[in-house]
Amino acid sequence: MRPAALAALLAGCAAAGPIRIESAGEPTRVVVSAPGPGGLRLARVDEATGREGPALLGESAEADGTVRFVPSHPLAPGARYRATLSRPGRPDEVLDHRVPSRPPAAAAVVERIYPSPDRLPANLLKFYLHFSRPMREEREVFERIRLVRDDGVEVPDPWRHVELWSEDARRLTLFIHPGRIKLGVALREAMGPVLEPGRTYVLEAGGDLLDQEGRPLAALFRKRFLALPDDRERPSVASWRIEAPRAGGREPLRASFPEPLDRWLLARMLTVAGPDGRPVPGALEVGPEERAVTFVPETPWTAGAHELRVHEDLEDLAGNTPARLFEEPAGAPPSPPADLCRSFEVR
Amino acid sequence: MRIALPAVIVLACALPARAESGIVASTVRGDPGLKSIQVLGFAADGILLVGDGAGSKVVAIMTGDAKPGKTLAAKIEKFDAQVAGRLGLAAGEVEIVDFAVNPASGRVYVAVRKKTDRAHVLLTVDGEGKIAEFPLKDVEHAAVPLPKGEQAPVSRITDVAWAGGKLLAAASANEEFGSKIFVAAGPIRHGAEGKLASAVTYHVSHGKWETKAPMSVLLPHEEAGKTYVVGAFSCTPVVKYPVDDLAPGAKVKGISVVELGSGNRPIDMISYARDGKPRILMNTFRFHHERAPFGPSPYWAAVMDASVLSENQAVNEKALRRLAGGSKPATDKIRMVEEFHGVVQLDRLNAREALVLRQKGEGFDLEPVVLP
What we know:
Radius of gyration of chain B: 19 Å
Strand content of chain B: over 45%
Strand content of chain A: 35-45%
CATH topology of the largest domain in chain A: Immunoglobulin-like
Largest interface: A-B, 65 and 56 residues
CATH class of the largest domain in chain A: Mainly Beta
Mean pLDDT of chain B: 85
Low-confidence stretches of chain A: 1-12
Distance between the termini of chain B: 18 Å
Helix content of chain B: under 10%
Number of domains of chain A: 3
Number of strands of chain A: 23
Largest sheet of chain B: 6 strands, mixed
Number of helices of chain B: 3
Oligomer: heterodimer
Distance between the termini of chain A: 76 Å
C-alpha cells in the first residue's frame, strides 16, 4: 500500500461497492470518489427521521475515469452523511459515513463577571460575562440569561438585544436596555426600570446557554447583587488618589477611585505621560472591584513631572463619563469642561 | 440591506465600467479576510458592500454580477434548514444574519453564520431558488478599515450604504453604548481608512437630544437635489442627515421627521414607488412584544409616504408620530402592514415585490411579497 493511501486509511475511510469516502487530513474533511462517468452527491442524514437533506455545497470533478466530490465546508463531528452515486442506466448506489465525534471536553463555565462588586447602581448600564470556552453566538442568548428579583420574580425583558461578543466568543457584553434606564423614556414609563434601588437581584446564566459545540454550561452561574440608588454624577478624576512611584525603579504607579469604573474601558482609556509629554510604555492592571489601577513601566521611572491622562469616554458603571452624564437632563446648561489629567511627581 | 437610489442605479446601468460609475477607484484581488459578515448592501454595478464588524472594516466586493436576470418567484420554505443542509449542518445550526438583493441582477446574497464554528459564509439564491456559494478566496475588492484608537473599537456594523458619493457605515463598539457613523469619501480606495463623524439626534418619544444612541439602519434619500442619509434608531425616531455634512470629525445635527413608537428596534428600511408615489417600508423588532404586542409576532412592519422624509418644518419636537396614544393611529401617512408580520429581514426584490425572511414556527421562509 502506498504511504498516502495508508495515511488516508488511518485517518478514517469508508468504502462499500464503488463509493469511497476518505478523510482529507482531518475527520471532518472528506473526499468522496467513485468510478465515473456519473454524478456524486453527499447529504446529511437526519438521525430522527432517516431522511436525507439537500446536497452539500462542494466541488465535483471527473478525471481518469473517477468522479470526485469535495465538500466546501467541514462536516459536523458525530453526524451521519450519505453519498449517492448516480450512473446512467444503473440504479443509484449509496454509502453512509459517520464522522467521528469529538473527544469529550470540559463544558464551559462562566469564569468572571464585571462589574465585580456586589453593590451596583440601579441605573447600571452593562455586564461583561467571561466564559472558559468559545460560546455559541445566537440571538437566543438574551433569553438564556435571566435577572431574578429578591421576591423570585424574573425581571421581564431586561437586555438590549444586540449581540456583542469578543472576537474569540468568550466574552459577552450584556447591556441593560437603555430605554428602561433613561428617565422619561416611554419604555421605562410602561415597564418600569430593570433595577430598583434597595432590592437584591440574581443574574443567572444556566444550562440552556450553549457553547460553540452546542453543549450546555457545566453549572448554573449566579451573581447576586444589591441595587443602590441611581448614579447620576460624572466621575471626577480630581477625586482619584494617586500614589506616585520613586525614580530609578519599576514600582507601580497606583491610582484608586471612589467608585468602580468600567473594567474594559479602564484597560483602554488610561495613559501615562513622562516629563517629555510622550506616553510611557508599560502594563496597566485593573485592581479589585474596578476601584484601582496599577501601572508598571517597561523601564525604570525617570525623575520629573508625569501625567496620568484619562480619555473623556471612560465610563462609570452607569455610563457617565468625566465629560458628560449618560443622561443629560433636558434643558440643562452645558457641562463644565472635564478634568482629564492628574499630574504626579516622580522623585 | 439597503439599496442605492434608483437614480444611481440607472446611471450605473448606463455606465457599466465601475471607474465611470465613480464608486470604486482602487481594488486588489484575493481573499478579503472577512472575520464576520454582519450586514450586506449593494451599490450600483453589482458592488456588494459587506460590514465586517469583527474585522473593523467595510469591504466592497466586485461581484461581476451585473447582468439583469429573473428574481426569485417562489417561496422557499424552511430556508434556514435548506441553507443548513447545503452546509452539512442540522436545522438550527445556522443563522441567516442578513441578505441583500443585487439590484443589477436580481440575485440574492445571503450572509450566514455557522453556529458550530462561528464561520461566516456568503451564499447566493438565483431566480429559480437555487442556493450556491459565493466563494471569497479570490475576489476583486476594496477594504476600508475603520479607525482604531484608545476608544473602544468597533465590533458590530449595523448597516452600510453608498449615498451621495460616500460610503457610510453605522457601527457599535463592544464596550460602549454609542453612535458611530463612519464615512469614506468616494470613490472607494482599497486601504483608505474611514473617518468617524458623530451625530446629534432628537429622540421624539422622550423629548431629548441624544449623542450616544446607536443608529440601526441607513437609507439614502434625495430631496430637492440634495442627498441625505436617513437613519433609524431604537425607540423609534427616523432621522435624516445631509450627506455633505458627514465629514470626518464633524458633529452632525439630524432632523427627526417621524416617530414610530417606543419599544422597537428598526431592522431594515427600503424605498420604492407604488402607483408613482414614493414609499418607505421598514420592519422592526418589538422589544416588549409579550407585554404590549402590535401583532402576532415581535417582528412587524410599517409603510409610510416618502413625503414624510421631506418634511422640514414639523420636525424634532413637532415630528410626525405614528401613534396618537396607545395603539391608535395618528396619521394616515404611516400604517402597519399585516402582510409583513413576522418579517425578520427584508429588501426590495423588484419594482413590484419585496423579498422577506419570515419567521414561521422554529424556522424561516424566504418569500417574495407584493410591496404595500
